[in-house]
Amino acid sequence: MPKIVKADAANIRKAASIIRDGGVVAFPTETVYGLGCDTFNERAALDVYRIKRRPSSNPLIAHVLDVQMAKRVAIGWDVRCADLGAKRESFGTHLADEGGARRTRAGR
User: Among 56, 75, 77, 78, which is least packed by CB within 10 angstroms?
Assistant: First the structure.
């Protein structure tokens, strides 16, 4: 049974555990609620399609950490993707340089 919980550290850890175990979680964004799962878990992704009543021919958005992860989920990686990925990598590096000790991508 779904339930709404406070977005505190303990519940965020619980949501991460649910995702690691192949489950689906809902979370608020700036404008709508999103559904999240492990992108690399086919059963979990199919659950998102089922919950949303979305045809499997309509792709889902995958939020990724870096270019290497994007290549794992992309179909048809081409020169346009490589160019965009190079821009993103340099932007992330720039933010890390400007922020000193502040890290922008999972501890990098």
Answer: 75
Residue ranges in the chain assigned as alpha helix (H):
9-20, 42-52, 67-73, 79-98
Together in a domain, 41 and 85: no
Query: Are the C-beta atoms of 79 and 87 separated by less than 8 Å?
Result: no
Kindly state whether residues 9 and 55 are assigned to the same domain: yes
What does pTM read for this prediction?
0.69
Q: Domain limits at 53?
A: 1-62
Quick one: 80 and 55 in the same domain? no
Quote the distance between the C-alpha of residue 93 and its chain's center. Answer: 20
The C-alpha angle 58, 19, 108, rounded to 5 degrees, equals: 95
Asked if residue 41 lies in contact with residue 62, where contact means CB atoms within 8 angstroms, the answer is no
- The Cα–Cα gap between 82 and 64 comes to 15
Tell me, yes or no, whether 58 and 69 share the same domain: no
